[in-house]
Design goal:
alpha/beta, QueA-like, Thrombin, subunit H, six-stranded antiparallel sheet, 8 helices, 17 strands, globular
Length: 348
């Protein structure tokens, strides 16, 4: 049966283990950049610092300024056995109350406590319908300070090593501002202050939006019919300033370049049927897959994604299924580095 992108199994591909980037290249913009032309189907090989030559003056670069929370809390149970709490997001009901993933799940039931550090505990309050936990941070220090001091950056599961001190900075974009993600918007990791200055110097505008990345971004689709997949929700915000910059650029005929799938989903969540953005915020469950009609995005800058993932389906929706999978075949053959610390793709 011919693969056409309508089934989850169509997004399987073979990836040698040594193609999964375990560390980031330095400097950030020295990573490779595959340029995929949707109109011609041509694939070119550049470096990320060449982006300043690819984006015309007057276009607008849309970036996600979310900042990764040091959400991984390692501690001990009352028995002395190790335990882990991964904070997902505040519940909004009480200060220091979070939804979290825990390990070992069978042991961390309501009223159990994880001792993270002297004077810093995490109490399990409840089990949610999706088997995550509601937890309460217990500390005399401000909650944000305790998390920042004792938490670790939650590197993705395919990075097979412990986080280091350097990851605390390297696994953030240089423009990260608003804390709330458990994973970085990785397409933005390639930008340096110098590259951003070069882009600004040639007249490329920048608009900042927010989408706090949740743990569901790493979850593969487990059903073969993508229409049956339940999309995880993520909180986003599009300010009036961002709306003005993007709408003005597109009205005058310039293009919007979305940096990462998070920026794509944010823009599309805030756009009306005519493609005009409106200031808005809230949770989005937008699942973009082939057949989706894009309204607010003209070009996409992204990394290389996991098989069977919603992120890969989004790329296929934008670039076309056959061109996307051909580009991935080329990336594997040409030795591109995959996933969070890997190389990038510009879809024009």
């Amino acid at each position: 049966m011919k693969r056409d992108g309508s089934r989850t199994s169509d997004y399987d591909f073979e990836l040698p283990a040594d193609r999964i980037a375990q560390t980031a290249v330095e400097p950030r913009d020295a990573s490779r950049l595959m340029v995929v032309d949707r109109a011609s189907g041509e694939i070119a090989h550049r470096h990320f610092y060449d982006l300043a030559e690819l984006i015309p003056s007057g276009d607008v670069l849309v970036v996600n300024r979310t900042r990764v929370l040091r959400a991984r809390l390692l501690g001990r149970r009352d028995s002395g056995a190790p335990a882990e709490v991964l904070l997902l997001k505040p519940t909004g009901r009480a200060a220091g109350e979070y939804e979290a993933m825990v390990s070992p799940g069978g042991k961390l039931k309501p009223d159990r406590v994880v001792h993270v550090a002297p004077g810093f505990d995490v109490r399990i309050l409840a089990v949610t319908d999706r088997r995550t936990r509601v937890v309460q941070l217990e500390t005399s220090a401000p909650f944000d300070e305790a998390i920042e001091r004792y938490g670790a950056v939650p590197l993705p599961p395919y990075i097979d090593r412990a986080a280091t001190d350097s990851d605390a900075e390297r696994y953030q974009t240089v423009y990260a501002r608003e804390i709330g993600s458990v994973a970085a918007p990785t397409a933005g990791l390639h930008f340096t202050p110098e590259l951003l200055a070069r882009l600004a110097g040639k007249g490329v505008e920048r608009a900042e939006v927010v989408l706090h990345v949740g743990a569901g971004t790493f979850k593969p689709i487990e059903v073969d019919d993508p229409t049956e997949h339940v999309m995880h929700e993520e909180w986003y915000d599009v300010s009036a300033e961002a709306v003005s910059r993007v709408n003005s650029a597109r009205v005058r005929g310039a293009a919007a370049w979305a940096v990462g799938t998070t920026s794509v989903r944010t823009l599309e969540s805030a756009a009306d049927e005519r493609g005009a953005l409106h200031a808005s915020s809230g949770d989005t469950r937008l699942f973009i897959r082939p057949g989706y009609l894009f309204r607010a995005v003209d070009h996409v800058i992204t990394n290389f994604h996991l098989p069977r993932s919603t992120l890969l389906m989004l790329v296929a929706a934008f670039a076309g299924y056959e061109l996307t999978m051909r580009a991935y075949d080329v990336a594997v053959r040409e030795g591109y580095r995959f996933y969070s610390y890997g190389d990038a793709m510009a879809i024009i």
